[in-house]
Amino acid sequence: MQRFFPACAPLRMQRQLTITACVMLGWLISPLTLADSSPSVEDLFEMDLKQLLNTRVTGSHLSLEAPAYSPITVIDQEQISRSGANSLDELLQQLPISAGYAGNAGNTYWGTNGNSSTHVNLRGLGINRTLVLIDGHRIANGGTGANAAVDLNAIPLSLVERIEIFRDGASAIYGADAVAGVVNIITRTNLQGAEASIRYGETSKHDGATRNARISWGANGQLGASNNQASLLLDLNHYTSDPINMASRAPCGLGEVNGELVCVNSGNTIGGRARLADGQRINFNQIAGGDGDFYEPYSASKHNFNANPYLNAINPVDRTSLSAKAELITQSQLRLFSTVMYTKQEAEQLASPGTLGLNRPMSISADHPTNPTGQNLVLERRRLLEAGTRSFYQDIDYSYGLIGMEYKIGDNWLWQSSINHSRNTGLDGWTNVANLDRVDQTLDTSVCSNAPNAAIPCGDYLGYGDLSAQVLDYIMTDIQDRGGNEQQAIATHLSGELMQLPAGALMLAAGAEVREDKAWRYPDPLVLAGIANSGEQEVVKGRLKAQEAFVETNIPLLRDLPAIKSLELSGALRYSDYDLFGDNTNYKLALNWQPLDDVELRSSYASAFRTPNVPELFLGNLVQNRITRDPCSNWSSLPANSITRQNCQAAGVPANYQQLVTSVPTTVGGNPDLQPEEANTRTLGILWQPAFAPGLSASLDYYSINIDKAIVTIDGTTRLAACYNSTNLSHPLCGASHFTRNPFSGEINYLSVQWVNAAHEKQQGVDLRLSGETEWEGWQAQLDWYTSYLDSYQIQPYQNAGRIDYAGKVTSGRGSYLKWRSQARLTLARANWSGSYGIRYLHKGTQLDAIPGSIGANIPAVSYHHLQMRYQAAKTLELALGIDNLFDRSAPYVSNWLDTNTDTMTYDQAGRRWYLGATIKW
């Protein structure tokens, strides 16, 4: 089989389904002969099966002719090419409909340990509320194990024909997770011959280089001596990117001090910040080769550590994808199809030197030989600069296999069945991690020794440079975790014309699906034991099974009447039975009215739901260092009538307390008692395609989404702000089960953000689109303009709580929810030349938890400009030159983000960058 189809070689260890798909592909290619006089697969499909399937619409199992059936955004191959994107996440995350946090190339270790996975987050409702499909079929979540959403890195952009984004609730059509909408990635089918492309780009600062090379080959034609038709497509893609050091974009970590924006950096000092028994805070020697016993009063401006040179704003990635698709169409109206895909990704994130004191207190007695102070002390933070930088890395494999068939029954019915299996496995690890048990041993004079080559050397942690190479070699280690995700599904459905009504055909579809999802994650033994200086974690392992059945119909009510060119009612009902949650029924009703030839009105109401994923259910307690803003930092400088000042004082926070470290040890964990979220979605829209301007199209859609029993983990910044802004600390989030402080220093030493079914969310807004194309004196012009307006996004974190409105806000760690987002692109073409100019607009906003009037509280509007030129040098050769962020617009300052001092999910950190590419076909 490998002789005919080497693409199957990387998948030989996968399950029988993927092997079966490979066998089918190998069988197709070996006897395939091409003849120009034979009809193509596309032509043959038009002659039979496609007479039934006029248009396959995302968001429906029916075949519908009406293009305005539902609010769908389509991004075709030409638009993808013009965007200049290297990957799906670059393309999808810049769309106006995307918001919030989804992971990107700037995935530094501050963002969920930077596991290098990227996602799409429609409406900003969460990556786990957007359903991602490939050719209408589900795929497994991706990442380093027990993940919440599909990893877009698994799908090579070169394999994509178009992307259809269904901007409506679709649980009645596709089942769970389609709360915010559906992203259906349609893969390429028709390629005759071969094409190859290469591309290189870098920033204007000569860093962050990207390289992309791919080759595709396709054939379609008659299969051997039979009259059956077949097609085959093979695609190989390789992408690499170089890092961009954070200090090159943000020289230091900024903060507001006395009304000025200055470098505040990190309170995890290299000499060691300590609290003496008398309450004095000191810092030990920070000069290499200096006095090992020197210490002085701690000063943030003097002693804090600038971590930015030890971090990356953009991290390196190396990714290779190999994909294949095959189709066979017989004269008996049978279509067999298969897709296999394999992606391997290696990524790495630079991390600053590790810090002791984060996960385990370090108490050193007054009589300890390394303690020069004469008092008992607690070493609050000691950064191990002597050990060098750390590195996070991921090695991820992703495979996907699908086989299916379609069979035409009679003249009007189509039966489709498919089996698909997808799986990803990942190894991820940290280098230069301290073993905390061994750290304790080096401080225990009863077991350690200063003798040369001692089995357990004694360590001096009070002062930079006092740690010997022998101690560092003893305490430092590497750790590695492993995990994965797996899904297998069997689906079948029957669709067609039930009967003819006076206004048209009554369409019906019915089907069933059985699906199983598995996820697992096994931390390193040192992490499980709680002795690795990387936070505590526990094993995560679980599975979910679902059995579902659905029915869908489209009923033509009226046609060709005054003010009613057509009026259609559609509906869908899906019954789901989950082994962990019981059964659930969802429905959808939609009305499509065409009063005039060039105007269509649409409205819908749908119920939706999302089942808890494996991490939300089964994740054990673990501690992560999450960026959190403490409202009590410098509380004594607030006005006397400030509620925050009064509460911080009443809580016993020291008057001179200042938050020295922006990341706070935060406990997260699963909840096996979670139940599915319930939602409903309403839409109302209009589509206008004026007869007097062929090629012009405009649409306006209003949406409203309500989510009950929402599974939430309110971030630490929001929890603390809600507590200290309440009268007399009366907010329920003020309890000791939510957070506690060190009674001496005032620092937060415990913060819990575990998942609960406690929230209610409501979001409403408007989507606008204007597109058109025209020709004038040899010039062809095309305009695509998308705009999304977020009117409100209110979250009630638990029953009877006040509502938090995210609309127009930039949040702490959750991303931004700006009121207006817009993207426009104008393309001009003439003869062998073409060019496009794009603008991405992000409206101004405010920081959700910022003190009014503080620096960074108000965030200005930002526009990014993009330019691309193409030249058809020959019939088979095309050249492209592009510039992104043409005017080198820098990201605005956002105080509640540490990475490059901005919201890395919304704003550009790389700056101006150019790329040059070439595509050849033969």
Describe the protein's topology.
Elements (H helix, E strand, L loop, with lengths): L15 H14 L11 H7 L1 H4 L19 E5 H7 L4 H6 L36 E5 L2 E2 L21 E7 L4 H4 L6 E7 L5 E11 L6 E13 L6 E13 L2 E2 L8 E4 L2 E4 L9 E4 L4 E4 L10 E3 L2 H4 L8 E3 L2 E13 L4 E18 L3 E2 L6 E2 L12 E7 L6 E20 L3 E22 L1 H8 L25 H7 E26 L2 E19 L2 H4 L11 E22 L2 E15 L3 E15 L2 E12 L3 H5 L3 E6 L15 H8 L12 E6 L8 E12 L8 E16 L3 H9 L14 E3 L6 E4 L4 E21 L2 E18 L7 E2 L3 E2 L5 E2 L2 E11 L2 E10 L2 E3 L10 E2 L2 E13 L2 E8 L28 E9 L1
Parallel strand pairs: 2-5, 38-42
Antiparallel strand pairs: 1-4, 2-3, 4-5, 6-7, 6-46, 7-8, 8-16, 9-15, 10-11, 12-13, 12-20, 13-14, 16-17, 17-21, 18-20, 19-20, 21-22, 22-23, 23-24, 24-25, 25-26, 26-27, 27-28, 28-31, 29-30, 31-32, 32-35, 33-34, 35-36, 36-37, 36-40, 38-39, 40-41, 41-44, 42-43, 44-45, 45-46
Shape designation: globular
Extract low-pLDDT stretches.
1-55, 109-113
Arithmetic mean pLDDT? 88
The biggest sheet amounts to: 22 strands, antiparallel, barrel
Q: Quote the beta fraction.
A: over 45%
Strand segment tally: 46
Question: What Rg do the Cα atoms give?
Answer: 30 Å
| Helix proportion range | under 10%
Our measurement of the CA-to-CA distance between the termini, rounded to an integer number of angstroms, reads 26 Å
Count of helical stretches? 13
Label the structural class: mainly beta
